Each structure stands twice: as C-alpha cells, then as structure tokens.
C-alpha cells in the first residue's frame, strides 16, 4: 500500500511541477521554474521508491499515463486549452490502457528477477 501512495505522490508532484514550468514561461520567472525543477526531482525520487514494490511496466505506465491525462485536464482547466475530439479519444485510450495493464494475469511460471551487476565486478 505504501508503494502505491508513493506512486500517487510522484504523479501529483509531477503535475504541480509541470504546471509551474508552464507558468514560469520558459524560466522568465526563475523561481517558478526552479520550483518546478525541484518538484520534478521529488517526483522521480518518490517514483523510484514506489518501484521497489510495483513492477516497472505497471508503475511507469500508470505514472506516465495518469500524469499525462491529468496534466492535459489541468491544461484545459487552468490554461484555457481546447478539448478536441482527438484529445478526448487520447484520454480514453490512456485510461483503458492503464486498466488493462492492471488486470491480473495467470503466468505459468514467472521469470526470476534479473540482478544487475557492475561491469567492473569480477566473478
């Protein structure tokens, strides 16, 4: 449950950070841009903690998909962007994709996790 809360935090912080980058107008307002960058760092840190328990494929799909959809809605609500037919279809595709990725699947035999080693490590 904690990993899912960290993923939600990562998504929320990234959305706020992205919105601050928009408001910073290309870093014309330096402090807003810097705050946005700081929040991006916090989002990545929180996401990395979530990935301790959540599979990478599922975690990244949710992070990217939900973050993209909500950021798109923030753009429409806060910045006056227009919701077009193709955008609506795109939002629906994101939602359907996240649902499909979270559906349980019965695997015959799970592959063992691959452990990464440094190339300089000698056996």
From TrEMBL:
It holds the Pfam family Multi_Drug_Res. Its main location: membrane. InterPro entries: EmrE-like, Small_drug/metabolite_transptr, Small_multidrug_res. Keywords: Cell membrane, Membrane, Transmembrane, Transmembrane helix, Transport. It is found in: Cell membrane. It comes from the Bacteria. It is a multi-pass membrane protein. Coiled coil: none annotated. The chain crosses the membrane at residues 31-51, 58-79, 91-109. Belongs to the drug/metabolite transporter (DMT) superfamily. Small multidrug resistance (SMR) (TC 2.A.7.1) family. This is DMT family transporter. It comes from Lactiplantibacillus daowaiensis. The lineage of its organism: Bacteria, Bacillati, Bacillota, Bacilli, Lactobacillales.
């Amino acid at each position: 449950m904690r990993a899912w809360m960290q993923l939600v935090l990562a998504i929320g912080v990234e959305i706020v950070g992205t919105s601050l980058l928009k408001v910073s107008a290309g870093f014309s307002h330096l402090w807003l841009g810097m705050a946005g960058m700081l929040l991006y760092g916090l989002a990545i840190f929180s996401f990395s903690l979530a990935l301790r328990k959540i599979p990478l494929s599922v975690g990244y799909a949710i992070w990217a998909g939900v973050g993209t959809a909500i950021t798109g809605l923030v753009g429409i609500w806060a910045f006056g962007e227009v919701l077009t037919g193709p955008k609506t279809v795109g939002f629906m595709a994101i939602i359907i994709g996240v649902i499909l990725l979270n559906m349980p699947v019965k695997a015959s035999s799970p592959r063992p996790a691959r452990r990464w080693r440094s190339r300089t490590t000698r056996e």
